[in-house]
Amino acid sequence: MALSAFFLMFFLLQHLSINILSVLSPETFNEVSHFMGTNPIVQFALQPVLIFAVVFHFVMGFVLELRNSRARNVSYAKNNGAANSTWMSRNMIWTGLTILAFIGLHFIDFWFPEINTKFIQGDWSGTMQGVDGFRYHEELVHKFAHPARVIAYVVSFIFLGLHLAHGFTSAFQSMGGTAGRKKTLQTIGKAYSIIIPAGFIFIAIYHHFNH
Amino acid sequence: MNLTLKIWRQKDSKTKGQMVDYKVTEISEHMSFLEMMDVLNEQLVNSGEEPVAFDHDCREGICGMCSMYINGEAHGPDRGVTTCQLHMRMFKDGDTITIEPWRAAAFPVIKDLVVNRSAFDRIQHAGGYISVNTSGNTQDANSIPISKHAADTAMDAATCIGCGACVATCKNSSAMLFVGAKVSQYALLPQGQVEAADRVRNMVAQMDLEGFGNCTNTGACEVECPKGISLDNIARMNRELMKASI
Amino acid sequence: MALDSKVPKGPIKDKWTDYKNHINLVNPANKRHIDVIVVGTGLAGGSASATLAELGYNVKAFAYQDSPRRAHSIAAQGGINAAKNYQGDGDSTYRLFYDTVKGGDYRSREANVYRLAEVSANIIDQCVAQGVPFARDYGGLLDNRSFGGVLVSRTFYAKGQTGQQLLLGAYSAMNRQIARGKIEMFNRHEMLDVVIVDGKARGIIARNLVTGEIERHSAHAVVIASGGYGNVYFLSTNAMGSNVTAGWKIHKKGAYFANPCYTQIHPTCIPRSGDYQSKLTLMSESLRNDGRIWVPNNLEDVKAIKEGTKKPTDLTEDQRDYFLERRYPAFGNLVPRDVASRAAKERCDAGYGVNATGEAVYLDFAASFERYGKEQAKIHNIENPSAAKIKELGQEIVKAKYGNLFQMYEKIIDQNPYETPMMIYPAVHYTMGGVWVDYNLMTTIPGCYAIGEANFSDHGANRLGASALMQGLADGYFVLPYTIGDYLADDIRTGKIATDTPEFDAAEKDVTERIEFFINNKGTHSVDYYHKKLGKIMWDKCGMSRSAEGLNEAIEEISALRKDFWQNVNVPGTATEYNEQLAKAGRVADFLELGELFAKDALEREESAGGHFREEHQTEDGEAKRLKEFQFVSAWEYKGEPKDAILHKEPLEYENIEVKERSYK
């Protein structure tokens, strides 16, 4: 769990850094996107690892949840979980499922069309008709035209934030994060779980109002 | 004060149980929670009913016998106490108090509020010791200096009373805090390091075998632990386990 | 039968070594064919089980709790004594021996105590090797504190949880042997009788407390390590389940019971708050290292405090009576437990008790806060520190030493002991009396041993602080494993002991009949009703001070109460289930017999010694008056009713120590 989480957290950071370029400099964004989309190492080494990490993370999540719920065969008549733990820590499965649903949407929006273009139609040029230069920025902006999608994205990112709010420190704890650095880790975790989703939300909203 | 108690009654491990309501009156706020239960039981015995079975022994918070899930929390609403140290001043006149046994597949109910925690013993059999003979022919106690910090941290871990509140309160019924505390105590001392790798592997394997859940770091155990055993012990155990696996 | 203590000849410092060199041993291959039953898994029983199993014997260990780790040794707080002389303050085996014999008011067996002092240092080595996290100083070496009744620092400790850590050490040693299959552990089992075959202890009848099943267990020897009988008082610092049953059953089958009247009343317990109280909580005696005990000097202040118009902190120094410092200038607040307890009782009886029940004195840390605070200010180079700063610094030091005790106090009493003095009052804590044993720790039943608090051997009429843990582990780790071999050497050809014999049949029948009686009696009063009544008689008439008149009354009253119990006790439920009331009924039945023997023993002992204080025998200034003609152990032989018990005397001789008046002035 924790290992795939680390990879995914690193991926999120990388994803956000590239996407934020779409706001700062569409040209750079296009170039980096094209590089990521066509570089063989990224495409044939990192991408499968990523997919594996995602699948592994949610499959393990389900297995964990199932095993853990089996460890208590009779539930409490009264349980006051709020007294000793955060909502986020107790509901990772629900925030996780929301994110999974979002990944479905996200794949339909970006990933399937990409795969279709590159692998089925064999178009690796990164261009499209009616657009000067690369197509990536145009596609991105276009996706955020519809308010329903923007709302769906924003909600999902909030859930991602909740997931990360527990997941970040939890992953370090599972990997044996030391007591001395606990405070620092908690602070970084808090910042990370706010900045990442906030960044994505900002991008979605920015493009919605600026297309 | 007068109280309504909702208590889990279950005749034995094979019979199905249910919550039953009782009333107690004239409870003093200076009573301990178990003394309140004594009042209820005296009342039940005198009216020809069977008293509520519950585990208790030292009644000073160190033996780890008492084990009640009170109003949705292990050992009740107070912090840093076992059920026997919980005082009725934590409650108000007219309150309804829900009392349940520890709930975990690895802790089956024996009767009413009494559960079987022998799974904890079996985890200790798997490696909760240092393999040294009790002959007394060991080297002088002061021959290996141990830094005060290490000794104190080991002591903090060793404070665990094995009551099982961590398992009871964990949404996953995980025993990681209990096992982590023992692994940590020995890992922090030079005497324990010789067989550290085997110890952590064996104890964790036994823990899984007993049917405890996995840790998802909710931190509930640390909050509810009557002895304040730190979550750091789980992290240390994870580290020890990784070290042992590499 | 004349008592033979079997103390070996020779100079005291060579006795144990010579003895070990000459006793019979069982060879390792034969140990595999020998079974030993150990009843109780506290420090004595746990360490004995582990060591016997390690030597190769097949051990069956029994505990009424759900795990060996819960035995009441776990509640010992302060520490464990050992003559290590790490502090270089002149400690030695002889000095520990001397202090223990003197502390016990010259009523213990010299040779046993010397052996205890001799092996004490080994205990610390052993425990450290097992991973017991004793407190250490900044150099990484073991730290010591001092305790009542001694002039050196020889007490090793693990915060305020020394008993817990030592017990978990013994438990871990047991776990190692359980994993190897050398100890078979019977949790939630209670021994209800011992089985004697051809005059030797050959097994026990036990009840499975979960299913109610009656079981037969055979062995070549039976070791009783079931602790003390303080719960005869109902209210004590013992665990709720602590009982005398194992010891009493062997007494009824031929083991003599020694000095039942020697009871330790511990001075630093949390006072009682009401009639519903189920037990008393002890706070470590180590608190007396830094706390000063006092009551107000005049009764008006007492009244004002009780009414709430004055607070204890309002009283100036000259309005306070630091009665221990006043009466015992040499030892002050660190006088032995019996002396401190009686002094507190004397003040409270005179009307100076400071709480609503009139049974409490103050234990004040204000002076320590100041002393430590000033020291810390110097260490941290704080110039002209304010009084508040000094107090704060001092409180940190006290918190590091006793933080858990202060927290415990606050949880129970709901007062902050950092701001207002603690209230304390003596409570029954430990019983020095117990099953009579010889130098081998064997009772008067061949093959039946008693170790730890269950026996009478080492503490005389009063136990010094931090010596109970020492004795439990000494017996279990280092003494019994040797001495039992001497007996078992004759048993290598015996083979397995059968349980389908008339002796087992008869013992099981007695046990079953008694249980059936309880279940079918359907009386009018609960078990606790009788236990509380017995406790009140004991506390009022056999408590901190005793008189012939009160003891005679106690004997009559207990006898009558016992009769009533056997007619009117009400035990709900059935015999074939988890039934705590049933288990308790059996224990209280035994307490009702022991209580009477206790009073009889106290009556016959026409002197004051240690925990036994007879009002008729005191000096002019109220100190205990020991009498030379009572320099013996009273060992009682069972003959039916407690009043018919026969007294056997084991004379006590002191060759290596001069018997003096025990003065702490």
Lay out the secondary structure.
The complex is a heterotrimer of chains A (211), B (246) and C (665).
Chain A: H1 2-24, H2 26-38, H3 40-70, H4 87-90, H5 92-120, H6 136-143, H7 147-174, H8 182-209
Helix pairs in contact in A: 1-2, 1-3, 1-7, 1-8, 3-5, 5-7, 7-8
Chain B: E1 3-9, E2 18-24, H1 33-46, E3 69-70, E4 73-74, E5 96-100, E6 109-111, E7 114-115, H2 118-125, H3 148-158, H4 165-169, H5 176-187, H6 190-193, H7 196-209, H8 220-224, H9 232-245
Parallel strand pairs in B: 1-5
Antiparallel strand pairs in B: 1-2, 3-4, 3-5, 6-7
Helix pairs in contact in B: 2-7, 3-5, 5-7, 5-9, 7-9
Chain C: H1 12-22, H2 28-31, E1 35-39, H3 43-55, E2 58-62, E3 80-81, H4 93-103, H5 110-129, E4 155-156, H6 162-179, E5 183-186, E6 189-197, E7 200-208, E8 214-218, E9 221-224, H7 245-252, E10 257-258, E11 263-269, E12 292-296, H8 299-307, E13 320-321, H9 323-327, H10 337-352, E14 361-364, H11 366-379, H12 387-413, E15 422-431, E16 434-435, E17 448-450, H13 468-488, H14 502-521, H15 527-541, H16 548-568, H17 580-604, E18 632-637, E19 646-651
Parallel strand pairs in C: 1-2, 1-9, 2-5, 9-17
Antiparallel strand pairs in C: 3-4, 6-7, 7-8, 10-16, 10-18, 11-15, 12-13, 12-14, 14-15, 18-19
Helix pairs in contact in C: 1-5, 3-6, 3-13, 4-5, 5-13, 11-12, 15-16, 15-17, 16-17
